[in-house]
Amino acid sequence: MTLRRAFTALTAAGVAAASLTGATPASAGGNHHPGKPLAFDRVATYPVFQNRPAGEDPTSPTVAEISAVSEDGRTLVYTDALGRRIGFLDISRADKPRGLGTLSLSQLGDAEDEPTSVAVVGRYVLVVVNTSRSYTEPSGRLDVVELATRKRVRSFDLGGQPDSIAISKDHRYAAIAIENERDEEATPPGGEEGDLPQLPGGFVQIVDLDGMDPASWRVRPVPLSGPDGQALPALVKAGLTAPIDPEPEYVSINSRGELAVTLQENNGVALIDLPSGRINKVFSAGTATISGVDTKKDGVIDLTGTITDVPREPDAVAWIDDRYLATANEGDWKGGSRGWTVFDSRTGEVAWDAGNTFERLAVTYGLHNEDRAGKKGTEPEGVAVAEYDGVRYGFVGSERSNFVAVYDLSNPTKPVFKQALPSTNGPEGLLPIPSRGLFAISSEEDDASVNVRASVSLYQLGKGAPAFPSIVSASSEQGTPIGWGALGALSAVPGKPNQLVSVTDAAYSQTRILTVDVKHSPAVISTALPVKDAAGKPVGYDAEGIFARPQGGYWLAVEGASGPENALVRLDAAGVTRQVVPLPADVAAGLGKQGLEGVTATTDPRGREVVWVAVQRELSTDPAGTVRLGRYDVTAGTWSWFGYQLNSTGVPGDWIGLSEITVVGDRLAVIERDKLNGPAAALKRVYTVPMPDSAAAPGPLRVLPKTLAVDVLPALRATNGWTQEKLEGLTVAGNGQVYAVTDNDALQDATGETVFLQLGSSRKVFGRD
């Protein structure tokens, strides 16, 4: 496929459905249109564990779920359900958010009280709190807290377990969804585990914000079931799943004072007039049949699957204008259409649907979570709408693929995809701050054991090229985006100065060689070559290194799950295995889980080929801190070994290792990195060592002296995101430029973001052409 065809195909992949006109990766990156169009660029990522109370264990879970902002746009407030508190951030300088501490709900009620949502009205923070003792005894309250003093000035009994809150634009009303959520382990009479109905049923609470004095505020419920507990006719007529148990989830208010509330498990939407509390309309969200998505958890990104007649089961909802509203169709117990929908509130009919395009965006940007393919895929959970500089934007968040898609909603029935914003894990809260040209994402996943921490990320709307994406995929010959991830290796392609190859590792069940075109920015994965065994069948190697041979074909460094499974594998140009070279038995026996991590080669004028490999960590028989570089003489079929001395971060539990090797003139360049990520990341460097011109002499390892070529950590931090751990690919292209890439681990225990770096010319980085 030519690069022109690749970009043309990518446009088709990014939009997929004829009703969604989107941008190529060039425009998604914001750097290929005359006049520098507006785009959102990430300016900061704040890990909320840094905002915890003094003396608290920094590894204990803490999250940022739903967020709100003060009227001046300078103080962000977020809910931390795991920490049973709300947090405050100073975002006066968006590029340097500062923690302002937290307010524990135990000071306002009980230590087990859990905030579910938050909003700001004037001087006050409205904190929605779940105080339920059980699923069958739901309860909750609304706390009104003065922002400046953090003192509670009033509290309202909500009469049930609350979920979300919304404030009307004129500040006359607040509306709260009282979900009274189901117990997923309970079995109702005649049903199955987790089924509806599970009473008591939910409803909506309206808060009349008469003036700005909370003393005059009052609450009034809007029942979504009859006085006798029976289903309302409007809900029955809409054909909801269990109208007796509405399960309201998310609320949004338009400028006419009309409330939209999703009934997620019931696959419906209710429209309520706030002044009167009257139910105007209830309609079903309907079902969707979506083709061209990945539906099997099998380690293969396969966009040929179909989900049939799946209830949308919308979670978040947002009014686009006073007529059209958007829903994020996350799904719950029976559904989830892997996209989002625009509904016409006058008719309850679908005005536009994303079809397979939202999930295909995840694939295009390397953020497809194959582990979730058999369930609800991308799980679009959040949606928000706001106007910036006269343009109405929609934001749709993927809970499982860690990104937010941005759309131009100038025409509500024809959304135009503009760009994708990467986030940390589980983007939950989507907060437009148009008065300051900002957008905030708060994330709910936090696991200190793998250093995946919840955060608040801030994005600024401006002119220029956003740092993300730095690499995307085009589409295959079949017109679908090429699935990719886990780029743990790079190699230049002989004779093609603007082309590289990478290879997938054990994150996927089938190994593929990916061609990367670097002539344009972002770089484009333009083709995928399946790797096969000697019999010509697809094979799954744990390939951690690749070298494109001038003679044709490739060398792979295969790590394997144990020492003896480490090997050099030679492929022909078609990707078929032609040779497997095992490691010497004594070397293999000394390896643990981390083995071969990189491969490169040289060929002398006589045609004698020598292959070099990097071993990631020390052999059990070698001195601590000394790893091996292996030299394999292809003609002689012999191995010899040299030593490389590692650095140390001194961080308990950390380890240092090598993750790539490449030839640079008469030297070998290697990546040396730590196991740390995020703000803890400390060592991501490229060193060079002299390349011996003959086999190593018998005896103790000869340690090769190393020279620092470039510290890559500043470049990784410059993305203003979660600093990636696995800097794993490095090569010098035929165009003389040095490229590096991070391995996103296919989103497992990682944010999933891939950083593809152009580090500069070989002369600049290594001091040579």
Automatic annotation (TrEMBL):
InterPro entries: Choice_anch_I (IPR055188), Mesenchyme-surface_protein (IPR052956), Phytase-like_dom (IPR027372), Quino_amine_DH_bsu (IPR011044), TAT_signal (IPR006311), WD40/YVTN_repeat-like_dom_sf (IPR015943). It holds the Pfam family Phytase-like. It comes from the Bacteria. Keywords: Signal. Residues 336-418 form the Choice-of-anchor I domain. Residues 483-745 form the Phytase-like domain. The keyword Signal applies. PROSITE patterns: TAT (PS51318). Residues 1-28 form the signal peptide. Residues 180-199 are annotated as: Disordered. This is Esterase-like activity of phytase.
